[in-house]
């Protein structure tokens, strides 16, 4: 029994250690000269330069796999601290490959700017998801779907309130409102549990 409690405690501790802190303030510019923890820079010392990154316009050096990566994360761009986002520029030589990898604390989106790039992944059950299989990644186990139109105009909100909120005339609201779907009667205000 004691062993089970210790294992459970260890599993909970691992989840706490390997997760990003939630953003509880407007911004937190990282102090990059800290060796163990990345604290916030004093807000009186923050400048516009803390929120700018230079370097995505240039290609990094290619590795043996024919891949060149410019990483933009809290270590290279301190203004990203607590923002829940990072990015990378990856260039590939002809025949270059991405080294198999995982992102234990993030989802990944690949955006090809030029050329052709075959992409996919292998899940933990060794199933291959290759070109054409994957349409999108969401940072949630059930991302759902909410359309702006159905959420705003799908409920019985007074036209004068919508007009003030959206800066539209009552006539414009009536035109759009005539095409609405009444989803609020289902109690979901236009939100769908479907990941599509």
From TrEMBL:
It holds the Pfam family Cupin_1. Keywords: Apoplast, Disulfide bond, Glycoprotein, Manganese, Metal-binding, Secreted, Signal. Residues 54-174 form the Cupin type-1 domain. Transmembrane segments: none annotated. Mn(2+) binds at residues 101, 103, 108. It is found in: Secreted, Extracellular space, Apoplast. It comes from the Eukaryota. CDD domains: cupin_OxOx. SMART domains: Cupin_1. Residues 1-19 form the signal peptide. Oxalate binds at residues 103, 108. The keyword Iron does not apply. One of its GO terms (molecular function) is manganese ion binding. Disulfide bonds join 28-40. The keyword Secreted applies. One of its GO terms (cellular component) is apoplast. Belongs to the germin family. This is GERMIN-LIKE PROTEIN. The lineage of its organism: Eukaryota, Viridiplantae, Streptophyta, Embryophyta, Tracheophyta.
């Amino acid at each position: 029994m004691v062993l089970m409690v210790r294992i459970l405690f260890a599993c909970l501790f691992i989840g706490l250690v390997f997760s990003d802190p939630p953003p509880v303030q407007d911004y937190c510019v990282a102090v990059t000269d800290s060796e163990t923890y990345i604290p916030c820079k004093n807000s009186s010392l923050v400048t516009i330069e803390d929120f700018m990154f230079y370097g995505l316009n240039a290609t990094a050096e290619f590795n043996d796999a024919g891949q060149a990566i410019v990483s933009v994360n809290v270590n290279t761009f301190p203004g990203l601290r607590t923002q829940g986002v990072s990015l990378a520029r990856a260039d590939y030589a002809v025949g270059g490959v991405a080294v198999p990898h995982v992102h234990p604390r993030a989802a990944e989106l690949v955006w090809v700017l030029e050329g052709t790039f075959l992409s996919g992944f292998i899940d933990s059950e060794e199933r291959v998801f290759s070109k054409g299989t994957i349409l999108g990644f969401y940072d949630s186990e059930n991302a759902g779907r909410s359309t702006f139109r159905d959420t705003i105009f799908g409920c019985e909100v007074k036209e004068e309130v919508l007009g003030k909120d959206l800066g539209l005339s009552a006539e414009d609201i009536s035109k759009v409102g005539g095409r609405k779907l009444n989803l609020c009667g289902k109690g979901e205000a236009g939100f769908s549990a479907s990941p599509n």
